[in-house]
Write a structure and sequence with these properties.
The chain is an alpha/beta fold and about 200 residues long. It has one domain (about 5-160): 3-Layer(aba) Sandwich (Dihydrofolate Reductase, subunit A), CATH 3.40.430. The chain is about 25% helix and about 30% strand. The protein has 5 helices and 10 strands; from the N terminus they run E-E-H-E-H-H-E-E-H-E-H-E-E-E-E. An 8-stranded mixed beta sheet has the order 5-4-3-6-1-7-10-9, sandwiched between helices. The chain has a two-stranded antiparallel ribbon with strand order 2-8. Strand 9 and strand 10 form a beta hairpin. It is globular, with a radius of gyration of 17 Å.
Length: about 200
């Protein structure tokens, strides 16, 4: 059975990106980049908006506010291009131009449930906030990982991650610090029907 990981990088105040900021908020360091390069083989799951954005980067489109990609950003996009990707969309058309991408038009929750039951590797989301929210609400997420970068983007932050989420209890299973500034925390999530009456002992 496959394992499903929801994986975010965020500002301290819970934004997925910020207007005018470079990738990784410009704060990735050698320890963090080395760790990214050591990640196991994974199949990435995404929605149409993330596909359009990331496939555009792969085709050479540079994010707004930048004249060119930094080497770290190029390496990250190249790794994504080589990886297997499943895209959930009713608006995109086949064939998808980005290499190693498969289009799924059906319900994402049903499709991911079937992928988990029939597969054996790691499935991981990338971006795609509404997809992540749907998968978590459906109880399909095994691990919830957040890389927290030391910035507050109150003025420029875009894509608030947790709006619309259910209440979720999180059991920490791993944590570490990269380059003395990036916090990585990983949890096993449990969706709550109602807030607990008492704090856990």
């Amino acid at each position: 059975m496959s394992e499903l990981l929801v994986d975010f990088i965020t500002s301290l105040d819970g934004y997925a990106s910020g207007e005018g900021w470079p990738g990784f908020w410009g704060l990735e360091g050698p320890e963090y980049l080395a760790w990214l390069g050591e990640q196991p083989e994974v199949t990435y799951l995404m929605g149409a908006n993330t596909y359009r954005l990331m496939s555009g980067f792969a085709a050479g489109e540079v994010p707004g506010g930048q004249e060119e990609f930094r080497p770290e950003e190029e390496a990250s996009v190249d790794e994504l291009t080589q990886a297997s990707k499943v895209v959930f969309s009713s608006s995109l058309e086949e064939p998808l131009a980005w290499a190693n991408s498969t289009l799924v038009r059906g319900d994402a929750v049903d499709a991911v449930r079937a992928m988990k039951e029939s597969g054996s590797g790691l499935l991981s989301t990338i971006g795609s906030l509404s997809l992540c929210r749907s998968l978590l609400t459906a109880g399909l997420v095994d691990r919830f990982r957040v890389g927290i970068f030391p910035v507050i983007t109150g003025a420029t932050g875009e894509e608030r991650i947790y709006d619309g989420y259910p209440d979720v209890a999180l059991e920490m299973i791993d944590h570490r610090t990269f380059d003395g500034r990036i916090q990585m925390v990983e949890y096993r999530p449990r969706v709550l029907e109602r807030p607990p009456l008492h704090a856990p002992a």
